[in-house]
Design a protein that fits this description.
Oligomer: single chain
Number of domains: 2
Largest sheet: 8 strands, antiparallel
Radius of gyration: 23 Å
Structural class: mainly beta
CATH architecture of the largest domain: Sandwich
Shape: globular
CATH superfamily of the largest domain: Jelly Rolls
C-alpha cells in the first residue's frame, strides 16, 4: 500500500533538509545506527566527492524499505535519439542555426518521457565530467513502471508546455511551464504528464553541480533567492510490482529489472535532492541610465569551470522586465562572444527576433559567430521614441557555455531546422555617409 506525505515543499537552495513520511523514521543523533526504526535500510547518496569542501559537499541519507542494490543486472536498452558528448557524428559548423518547435504528440500516439527524448547538441566529454548535453522532451503518457536516471550528469528541466508530476526517490514534484527543476546526477525519477501532452528542454550538466550565481556589487538581494528553491517532502510507496530501471551511463542506455518500486524512501536528510524554482521569483536587475547590460545579469544558475570567470554552463533567463535606459539601443546588441549560446523560448516573443522564433523553438550561436537583432528589429529600435517600456508576454532562456556546442546529426538534418535563418539579417543596409 502506498503512503503519501503532506503536499508541501522544503525551502532553500542547497540547505540541509530533513523530512519523514512516518513519525520517527529519521534516526536521532547519527545517520547510520545499527538498527533503523520501521526496520528500514540506511543508504547515503553522494553527488560530490566525500572530501569536497563543506560548502560544495552534497550528500543525503535516505531511509528506505530496500537498498537500491536490490535489483538485477544491467543490459543494453533500445537505441533512442539520446546522445552524449563528445559529439562525433559530424563536424561542428560555425553557422547560426534555428529550429522550429518539436511537434506536440497527438492523442493517436502514446509516447512516454524516455521515448520522447531527443538530443539537439552537446559539448565536452561526459566521461571527463565537463560540458553539457542539450535535449528536448515531448510526451503524452506516463512512464508506468519505468524509472530513469543519468549517471552522466544532473538534469535541468525547462518546461515549455503542459504540466507534469515527477516522482523521485526524495518525494514528488509538480512542474509547469515557467518553472524549472533539477534532478541530481544518479537520482531516480519517473515523469507523468497531467492534462495532456508536455514539451520542454533539458540541460544535462556533466560538470560541477549548479549553484546560484554570485551577486557581486549587486549586494545581498536580487537575482535568485535561496528561499525560493523548493525541495520535496518525503513520500514513499511500498509496492511489490516489477519495475525497470533505465540508466544513462557513459552515453549509452542500460536497463535492469527491479522487483519493487524504487520510490520507497520513508525519510531523508541532507542537501542533495531534486528541487524546483518558479522563474517569476527571479528579481531582475537592469540598467536605469544607459547601455544594454550584458546577459550575465540574468543568470539563475551556473556550473563553474576550472577557468575563473567562465562557466561550464550558465542558465540565463530573459523574463518580463522594465527597460528605462536613455539614448540606448534596447534590444540585444550585435556581438561576437567567447561563450556559445543555445536559446529557447518558453512563451511569447523575444525582443531581438520578431519572426521565426516560436515558443518551443531554439537557436544556436556558437563562439565568435556574429549575431544580433534581425534587420527589421534594428531599424525599429534605432528610430523608436524612447520612454520607459515594459517587456511583457515573454520568457526566453539561454544555456551559455565556454565550450563550442555541437549539433547532433538529428539537429542538422531535421526538417525542423530553419535553413534560411541567416536571411533575417539580409535586410541590413549601409547607412554610412561620412557625416555625423
Amino acid at each position: 500500500m502506498g503512503i503519501v506525505s503532506q503536499l508541501t515543499y522544503l525551502s532553500g537552495f542547497n540547505n540541509e533538509h530533513e523530512t519523514e513520511a512516518l513519525p520517527n523514521a529519521l534516526p536521532k543523533g547519527q545517520f547510520s545506527p545499527q538498527k533503523v526504526n520501521y526496520k528500514l535500510y540506511a543508504e547515503q547518496v553522494s553527488t560530490s566527492a566525500f572530501t569536497a569542501p563543506r560548502t560544495k559537499n552534497r550528500r543525503s541519507w535516505t531511509y528506505r524499505i530496500r537498498p537500491s542494490v536490490a535489483m538485477g543486472d544491467f543490459s543494453p536498452y533500445k537505441n533512442t535519439q539520446l546522445q552524449t558528448g563528445p559529439q562525433t557524428q559530424s563536424p561542428c559548423p560555425p553557422n547560426v542555426m534555428r529550429w522550429d518547435p518539436l511537434p506536440l504528440i497527438d492523442e493517436s500516439s502514446n509516447i512516454d518521457f524516455i521515448e520522447g527524448l531527443v538530443t539537439i547538441a552537446t559539448n565536452g566529454d561526459a566521461n571527463q565530467q565537463i560540458g553539457i548535453g542539450i535535449h528536448c522532451y515531448s510526451a503524452n503518457s506516463s512512464m508506468g513502471n519505468k524509472v530513469f536516471y543519468s549517471s552522466d550528469g544532473e538534469m535541468l528541466f525547462v518546461p515549455q508546455h503542459g504540466n507534469m508530476e515527477v516522482k523521485t526517490e526524495f518525494g514528488k514534484l509538480h512542474l509547469s511551464a515557467g518553472e524549472i527543476m533539477v534532478i541530481p546526477r544518479g537520482v531516480r525519477f519517473s515523469v507523468t504528464p497531467i492534462d495532456g501532452a508536455i514539451r520542454g528542454y533539458i540541460c544535462e550538466n556533466y560538470g560541477q553541480s549548479f549553484v546560484l550565481s554570485e551577486r557581486g556589487p549587486a549586494g545581498a538581494n536580487g537575482f535568485a533567492n535561496q528561499r525560493d528553491f523548493l525541495y520535496p517532502t518525503a513520500w514513499f510507496e511500498d509496492v511489490d510490482t516489477p519495475h525497470v530501471i533505465i540508466n544513462k551511463f557513459c552515453g549509452h542506455l542500460y536497463q535492469a529489472p527491479l522487483p519493487h518500486s524504487p520510490f520507497d524512501v520513508v525519510a531523508w536528510v541532507g542537501n542533495s535532492a531534486p528541487y524546483k524554482y518558479d522563474l517569476k521569483n527571479f528579481n531582475v536587475m537592469n540598467t536605469v541610465s544607459f547601455d544594454h547590460p550584458d546577459p550575465s545579469i540574468f543568470t539563475v544558475l551556473t556550473s563553474p569551470s576550472e577557468l575563473e570567470g567562465t562557466a561550464n554552463v550558465d542558465f540565463v533567463i530573459f523574463p518580463p522586465r522594465w527597460m528605462v535606459a536613455e539614448n540606448t539601443f534596447r534590444p540585444p546588441y550585435f556581438h561576437r562572444n567567447v561563450m556559445s549560446e543555445f536559446m529557447g523560448l518558453i512563451e511569447g516573443s523575444y525582443d531581438s527576433k520578431e519572426k521565426g522564433f516560436a515558443p518551443g523553438g531554439m537557436s544556436l550561436h556558437n563562439c565568435f559567430t556574429p549575431h544580433g537583432p534581425e534587420a527589421s528589429v534594428f531599424e525599429a529600435a534605432s528610430n523608436t521614441e524612447l520612454a520607459p517600456q515594459k517587456y511583457e508576454n515573454t520568457l526566453a532562456f539561454m544555456f551559455e557555455s565556454r565550450f563550442p556546442i555541437a549539433p547532433t546529426e538529428f539537429a542538422l538534418s531535421t526538417p525542423l531546422r530553419q535553413t534560411d535563418y541567416i536571411d533575417c539579417w539580409k535586410g541590413i543596409t549601409k547607412h554610412f555617409d561620412g557625416k555625423i
